[in-house]
């Protein structure tokens, strides 16, 4: 009898083990990345995963003398080195560059999920504590290298976006939009930050961006979701997965657009002056879904998260369902490919890189952690037409690559992108701890 019981138990263990082995197999992409880019990407049937594909590139940093590979006709050099997890960039009117040296705040909770998240963050180079600092970089002699590096503001709470409006500099901490007085040429701010509005904190997607709209004297603030698909309850997503419009004088805000899982980079398109953003879409639908995207945003837009993706494709994992929303879920303008982790965004309004880089969007793709093969880990350019939209038939053009070495390890990972006062492109690299400067080759 005991022998039969042991055999049954062994069979049960083997069945469970086989099931776990099958569930843990990585989902391999069936489509070329290019098929999931552009205004009409290929949207396949979802391949739901209980255990996500884990294929994050090991972060190793840059060997001595190594640097990314620029597109033909461009050159790249280090603008600043020795930084501490530089994430975001902002250019002041006098040409000084601010860089937010920042990372996720300590995360709530633990358990197996927290442990796995910690392993992944360490593997990807994101396990370091946040410096909670904004540093000022100044290239006074115009040689393309910042010879002055000053601790501009300290004691912040996972700062990210920065924006100057009038005499106020606004900083988006993970839990609040704050401001300090600023005058041209300041190299250090000692004033206590003044609270403008509180922002929801905790969970996933800690980074908050902010840009100013000169036409309305308001600010746009992006706040990503706390989860993948509201699996912890939609009530925990209040004022998240949103772009908020902030009225700084009244210190109030309203939801400008919703259903955006993790909007990050935001910019005003130079011709139309309309707001655009890049968005990180949901996980665990396989290596071909869902595409991250670049899109224009208008007041009242809803892009479907968590119930729908890419303009109305239902995510059957979300409970309860929301069928009334389907016809109102706005389709994004341009797919960037699945899991590329599009974070940085700037338009080529004052770029002077020559060639085809005169009218379009530069996008920093931080790189996938759950796609096989990996995607992203580069800076791309999407050509635009004079109508303020991506050019017909345009595909993303590689601007800066080589962040992965020949063994697939991450020497760097691009995040924020801006132009400097000379028209060169600056790229924040939070694994290499460098700001790269891309210019037209002489």
TrEMBL record:
**Coiled-coil regions listed:** none
| Annotated Pyrroloquinoline quinone-dependent pyranose dehydrogenase beta-propeller domain residues | 72-285, 326-438
> Per the record, a Pfam family?
TrAA12
Stretches that traverse the bilayer? none
This chain belongs to the protein called Sorbosone dehydrogenase family protein
